[in-house]
Amino acid sequence: MKELLVFDSHLMGKFDAKAEKEFSIPSLLLMENAGAWVARRILEMEDVFVVTVVAGPGNNGGDGIVAARHLLNHELTVNLILLADEMKLKGDPGKNFEIAQRSGMNIYTVKDERDWDELFPFIERADVVVDAIFGTGLKRKIEGLYAKAIEDINLLAPMVVSVDLPSGVSSEDGSIMGVAVEADITITFEALKFGHIFPPGEDYCGDIEVVKIGIPPEAYYDEELPYRFTHPDGLFPAKLFRRPSLTHKGDYGHVLVVAASQGKTGAAAMAASAALRSGAGLVTLAAPQEVLPYIPIPPEIMTFPLPSSAGRISARAIPLIEEMLKGKTVLAAGPGLGTWEETGRFLLALLQKADIPRVLDADALNLIAPTGSIPGEGLTVLTPHPGEFSRLTSLPKKENLRERLEEARKFARERGLYLVLKGYRTVIAAPDGTAYINSTGNPGMATGGSGDVLTGIIAGFLAQAEPEEAEEAIVEAVGYHGLAGDLAASELTQPYVTATDILEFLPEAFKENA
């Protein structure tokens, strides 16, 4: 599995300071490396002869000034537009501006909008415009001169390379601080920022490249680095595709799916089928005996009828729990289960007995929400959508993705479980506080049954994983679920994707990384 670290501005600032204090790496050198990387990327482009760098008053502007100097050294025509009073430049940006002045570079200092209006040609006629106005430290809404400059860059520039983050995108949550640069390429340093991966900011970044600027890996040791962005290119341990010759079905686990009620039989079929399609050696579906004959499951799936009433699992099923669990290695419960009180009593008794990994979704979450706790000791994975998570926590539904991320981390850590908080940029929060932000999936997957398929995939992956591989299996399951949805959307277009399509494209998703 390929993962990219994600930093917020606090972490990035901390590591910049640590590099200087503990490793004697001057901040001026880090700025030099950052600007050199931006220049190097531009020099790799074809037919670039004229570059305009628009620099702000802070460290981001300093990075841009360094890039301008390196480009000038390679005999490009470079225009540096400084959106600041040069007399007020301090620290590293001030030192680099001093060097730029002595280099003979074309420098234009802009103090107000009238000054800016005279420089339109340098934006319009450049082959590349470098946006170095604001970086990760931006905390306030952009107005006045800076807003006008950004609007004109978006209107006139043929190609834009942003330094670290498009100016106007919040590094903390991807929100737009009034107005933001629409970049074609963003060169960021050391790690991704939340503004690169959360909407709407991610739509402003163009192609994102992460480069190292000289902070030693040792600077990260003994620090909490809780955020990971998963990458589809690195999905899945190879062993799940290359099985040894001397093997049998028992080597790949036995998933028990407890699901279904009257009128909700499709959810059970999708969850069980997904577990089977994900490589589990055996799958058994336990469902109300009245509806079991009507569930459209593949013939490979075994069944376990449960006592029921009006098509719902009744408390009379509780004495059968031990027999039902015999030989099973993973439990998946919830799809289409219903919320009848007797079904809830059965579920709580089942969880008390099940010391195997448990994947709980849909109605299982609704049934346990009022209790405030989850009985039993098996590894537990909850897979709520935001509404279900709100019911589990009694907190308002969070629309801000960063807030949602932090609530997921807190919940998983306090309860010692894995939380898969579904939605765009699904979050997988681990018991130790690590949060994986999934990169796959699309809005077309917002369709009935998609979560049931995910439940089955997670269960199927856990069935094949060793205990120490459980976390990876959960993260990979979410990644492949999204990748299958992406392939389905590519073939069918987003509005026409169904949960069954996600299931059908799952083998294709596996082949992508086999």
SSE arrangement:
Elements: E1 2-7, H1 9-23, H2 27-43, E2 50-55, H3 59-73, E3 77-82, H4 91-102, E4 106-109, H5 113-117, H6 120-124, E5 128-132, H7 144-156, E6 160-163, E7 185-189, E8 192-193, H8 194-197, E9 207-211, E10 227-231, E11 254-258, H9 265-277, E12 282-288, E13 302-306, E14 308-309, E15 312-313, H10 321-325, E16 330-333, H11 341-353, E17 358-360, H12 363-368, E18 380-382, H13 386-393, H14 401-415, E19 418-421, E20 427-429, E21 435-437, H15 450-464, H16 470-492, H17 499-504, H18 506-512
Parallel strand pairs: 1-8, 2-3, 2-5, 3-4, 5-6, 6-7, 7-9, 10-21, 11-12, 11-16, 12-13, 16-17, 17-18, 18-19
Antiparallel strand pairs: 1-10, 14-15, 19-20, 20-21
Helix pairs in contact: 2-3, 3-4, 9-15, 15-16, 16-18
Properties at a glance:
514 residues; alpha/beta; Rossmann fold; UDP-N-acetylmuramoyl-L-alanine:D-glutamate ligase; 2 domains; twelve-stranded mixed beta sheet; seven-stranded parallel beta sheet; elongated
Structure notes:
It is a single chain. The protein has 514 residues and is α/β, with parallel strands linked by helices. The chain has 2 domains: 223 residues, YjeF N-terminal domain (Rossmann fold, 3-Layer(aba) Sandwich); 271 residues, Ribokinase (UDP-N-acetylmuramoyl-L-alanine:D-glutamate ligase, 3-Layer(aba) Sandwich). Helices cover 38% and strands 17% of the residues. The protein is built from 18 helices and 21 strands. The strands form 3 sheets. Strands 8-1-10-21-20-19-18-17-16-11-12-13 form a 12-stranded mixed β-sheet, sandwiched between helices. Strands 4-3-2-5-6-7-9 form a 7-stranded parallel β-sheet, with helices on one face. A hairpin with a 2-residue loop joins strand 14 and strand 15. Helix 3 runs parallel beside helix 4, helix 9 runs parallel beside helix 15 and helix 15 packs across helix 16. It starts with a strand and ends with a helix. The mean pLDDT is 94.
